[in-house]
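Inputs:
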Amino acid sequence: MLLARVIGSVWTTQKEKGMENIKLLITQPLNAKREHQGNHVIAMDRLGAGVGELVLITQGLAAQKVAEEKRPPIDAAIVGIVDSFEVNE
Amino acid sequence: MLLARVIGSVWTTQKEKGMENIKLLITQPLNAKREHQGNHVIAMDRLGAGVGELVLITQGLAAQKVAEEKRPPIDAAIVGIVDSFEVNE
Amino acid sequence: MLLARVIGSVWTTQKEKGMENIKLLITQPLNAKREHQGNHVIAMDRLGAGVGELVLITQGLAAQKVAEEKRPPIDAAIVGIVDSFEVNE
Amino acid sequence: MLLARVIGSVWTTQKEKGMENIKLLITQPLNAKREHQGNHVIAMDRLGAGVGELVLITQGLAAQKVAEEKRPPIDAAIVGIVDSFEVNE
Amino acid sequence: MLLARVIGSVWTTQKEKGMENIKLLITQPLNAKREHQGNHVIAMDRLGAGVGELVLITQGLAAQKVAEEKRPPIDAAIVGIVDSFEVNE
């Protein structure tokens, strides 16, 4: 998974089947020093994450399994809102 | 998903089974500042996206599921045409 | 998918089950300006692509589905030979 | 797989179904010279790996199969704690 | 697939189910000029590849299919030992 910060939202009207009623957030992956790490990822959110919050993002086919019944054509999902993390390097 | 701008089209005559009648667009992934972010991606389009439009791209096996019945051997598909996005960093 | 140019061939004698009689080409991914974009990819070819030709490459598990009956342990396949492409940036 | 060093832990309260009772570690991928190689990866751990230990990380859908019965929506898992490695370059 | 050179071995005692009796090699991906290309990959080997040999590596879920009966939680496998390759750029 990636550690990321929610930085915004995306809206679409014309979309593929399965993408209806999906909340899509723009996230900035971070390293454990909270520095930017890699490219922006658009992720499905079902946890109610808000702008500024730290989240965990799962990528690839596993993301799709978050929306169990529907299997929307997504490749990234927020799977947790981060309470805290600790690093000892 | 990736945010990307449609920048062109690709045509093939000799192709693998399942690739017939698939519209393929060339896209430039962007970050939320609309700056180039990573390499060009060739994506299947079934939404009628045009050059210059912002789109959302799903990569990997989930992309294939967009073409439900046929499962073409693709690894990227446009899953939404972006109306707007908002960033608060 | 990636746009790429075929630049060579690879031969193996000792190989895993399912890799027999598979033609493997070395390809250089390109952007839409025909500049090098990313690392060399070794891809299965069933279309008869030749050195110098532009091709489309699918990566990941979808590549495997090109060889329908056999499912060789590959992660990249040529799915089309490019006739032309057009970019309006 | 990636060679990585465990550098910390992440805790979440709000999480997707299937993420309950999963231990998540922050890891720094390394090359065979023990130099940093690529971005931090958050991985599921079921082996009891501790901070400072070298581990092997599997990414993608195969990671999910580590938790056989549950299939949590993860994309990275620790599959081994490294005893030693040897390089002859 | 990636072209890579075998540069070493990794040993683990504590490991996930399915990782028993799997030979793990450290490989350095190369481009067709035999220059380093990307990060070290730890790959399963069932072909008896030795240090210094050139190999082809499959990544992702297809790698897992190399070990047909067992499906270990791996994401990279050696699928061929390279006899020769030819580039005409």
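The beta strands of chain B are 2-15, 23-30, 41-45, 54-59, 76-87. Flag for discussion at group meeting.
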